Amino acid sequence: MSAGNSAREAILGRVRSALAQTERVPVSSIPRDYRTERPTADLVGLFCERVADYRATVERVEPGELPAAIVAAARAAGARRVLAPAGVPQQWYEALSSEFGQVDDGTDIDTAGLERVDAVITTAVVGIAETGTIVLDHGPGQGRRAVTLVPDVHICVVRESQVADDVPAALRRLDPARPMTFISGPSATSDIELNRVEGVHGPRTLHVLVAPG
């Protein structure tokens, strides 16, 4: 046996000896007391701050002000044709219809029709304070995924009760069987020289309205 092999066997022998004297602890018995809550003085305020960090527009409004705030956001974005998925409150439809005329609910619209939509107005399922992320599971009021990716403007209403402190807390509120879209600011990308281009993979403008409830 060469000197190299002899040294190797000696080292492995010591490892085997040490392992033999070590008590084996079942993986299931290892405590995993991870912290599940991170108290924040102003959770909703943190969410708004982080959403704004992504160059999105964020605005806190009272419930009675929501229809007017939605119309104002769409008007400020220069929208002419808007879409509000089936399931949003009737008051939103009425306010939008009085301003923009016919409002599509996205039920039968195809891709060509979506390309003619200037702004989409949706609800959300969760907001994440730590990351400023909005999560859609495409239930009532949120529409299918294409509805929130093709139009150039996305106006999203998030309720204060929907804001979770971090990603693990948000995931506990979500149904893993549903399709999910995580949105952190307007769609953006950059080239090798870090020139930022917005609106390549989704809406160029994201306007978040945060309301009690």
Automatic annotation (TrEMBL):
Gene3D superfamilies: NagB/RpiA/CoA transferase-like (3.40.50.10420). InterPro entries: FTHF_cligase-like_sf, LUD_dom, NagB/RpiA_transferase-like. Residues 114-210 form the LUD domain. It comes from the Bacteria. This is L-lactate dehydrogenase complex protein LldG.
